[in-house]
Amino acid sequence: MILRRIARPMLSSIFIISGFDAVRQPTGRADMAGDFIESSLNALPPTVSGVLPSDPATLVRINGAAQVLGGLMLATGRYPRLAATGLAGSLVVTTFAGHPFWQETDPAKRAAQKANFLKNVSLTGGLLIAAADTEGKPSLAWRGRRRAEAAQAALAAALPVAAKTAPTAWDSLVERTQEGAAALAERSEDAAGILRERAPELAEAARERSAEIAEKVRDRAPEIAEKVRDRAPEIAEAARERSAEIAELIGERAPEIAEAGRRRWRKVAS
């Protein structure tokens, strides 16, 4: 796209020029960033700070060379997203090291440092946009979603085939249930037919047994009556004894029962 071919050199021009100047003449920038570099090295672990050079001028040259390389890559479109990311990282260090406006006491110098600080913040925003620019190509997130959708579609297409070739446990259970219901209906119809066929025979058998039972009852009726007559005095005596006992018990508890009745009546009436 023609816009990228124009905008990228415009954005990278300041980094190429200022980075080349820092490589040639690092003294002024090193003096300004000396305190920041020293405090940053002291904050790092000894294993890291021992590897980095402690000379501010050397660090300024390294940062300037990184800006020149990143600016050229961005201007020519060679790995532009990587170049923009590297330039943004180097610009953060340059901004806090070279433009600490909060430390200035002179109003004019403070205003100048603040303007440069905000300019670098704006440049960082532009570099972040360039780092996220995919030039119309699908991003990694988009490609990941497309692959996931394709996998889901393939799985959905494979499921009907698997269902046709291998019945599921649910289908087997439904089939077994239907077979059992059909068998039960057949057995019920058979039982009803047998019952209808044998109904006269069963009724005749019931009449014969009822006559037999009645005959046996008539035969044993005198014997049962004789036993009842023999036991009658004993049963009557037991009834009299129990009735006297029950009457005595009722007499003892009559006041209590009457009092309970009166309380219940007063409660209902109120």
What's a quick, concise take on this entry?
With 270 residues, the chain is mainly alpha-helical.
Q: Descriptors for this entry?
A:
270 residues, mainly alpha, 3 domains, 8 helices, 0% strand
DSSP summary, beta strand count: 0
Note the total helix count: 8
What is the 3D shape? Answer: elongated
Q: Classify the helix fraction into a percent range.
A: over 70%
Question: Over all CA atoms, what is the radius of gyration?
Answer: 54 Å
Structural class by sheet pairing and helices: mainly alpha
Average pLDDT level:
77
Number of domains: 3
Beta-strand residue fraction? under 5%
Low-confidence stretches: 161-166
Largest sheet: none
The topology string of helices and strands comes to HHHHHHHH
Keywords: Cell membrane, Membrane, Transmembrane, Transmembrane helix
Pfam families: DoxX (PF07681)
Subcellular location: Cell membrane
Main location: membrane
